[in-house]
Amino acid sequence: VQVCVPPLYWYHDWPKMILFFELWKKHSPTFIIYANSYSKNVGKVLEHYKKKGLVQIVNWPTLQSSEDGEDPNAGIYRLSHSLAHNDCVLRMKGEIGVLLDIDEYIHIPGNATLLDFAKREFGKDGNLGSLLFNHNGLKITPMDGTFDGAAVYVNATGPSKAVFRPEFVKYLSTHWVHTYSRVGKGRKWVPRDEALLLHNRVQFSSDHLKNTIETPIT
User: Which superkingdom heads the taxonomic lineage of this protein's source (predicted)?
Assistant: First the structure.
């Protein structure tokens, strides 16, 4: 399993990055991290996991302004992400690919790994090119250097994320495979009771959330 993380811009939340790597350990992946700019502490975290052979860091610099002062980076945020997504697919050497952000995790109840789960699903249908995982909020408190807190589901809706077979991807969008490289390939939604995308967004950890239902994670 290889996990692509889109470009990090001015990123400084080193505890969340450690949590990301440690929670993903269950699935034994390697990571391709696109980096534009980040703090010194984030750099130390990345180097730590790089030395373990888990992280490949891809430098993703901003573009130079033209002689007349035109800044090509002014509107490149989304374009840059899409370029990184598809560049990552070309770099992948893993059997299974995942595209998500530093605050997202695939949760499969029990002891099954994502590789086991994906291989089983892809083995059922030779025309299956990707799996879509339903979004759920994830609340973890406190999110600081102590890592001493509880994790609960929050019934927050949001976009899905995909697990895919890299050799079948022609064009990768942010939340799904946009175009497959072979005719007839398709996607399947994973039932919520089998697996979930957990999104540890800052707003889900707020103490002022309204109209939400929290459920302990098992």
Answer: Eukaryota
Question: Token match 């391709």: residue?
Answer: 32
Q: How far apart are CA 24 and CA 47, in angstroms?
A: 17
Output the six-digit token pair for 166.
Answer: 């890299």
170 in Cβ contact with 179 (< 8 Å): yes
Q: Are 2 and 97 in contact (CB under 8 A)?
A: yes
| 9 class by beta-carbon count within 10 Å (0-12 exposed, 13-18 middle, 19+ buried) | middle
Which amino acid would we find at residue 140? I
Of residues 22 and 61, more confidence is placed in 22
208 phi and psi angles, rounded to 5 deg? -115, 20
Cis peptide before 216 (omega within 30 of 0): no
Interval 28-56: pLDDT, tens: 999 999 998 999 999 999 999 999 999 99
Is there a contact between 186 and 129 (Cβ–Cβ < 8 Å)? yes
φ, ψ for residue 117, nearest 5 deg = -60, -50
Q: How far apart are CA 118 and CA 87, in angstroms?
A: 22
Measured distance CA(213)–CA(21) in Å, rounded = 27
- Cα Rg, the chain, nearest whole Å: 18
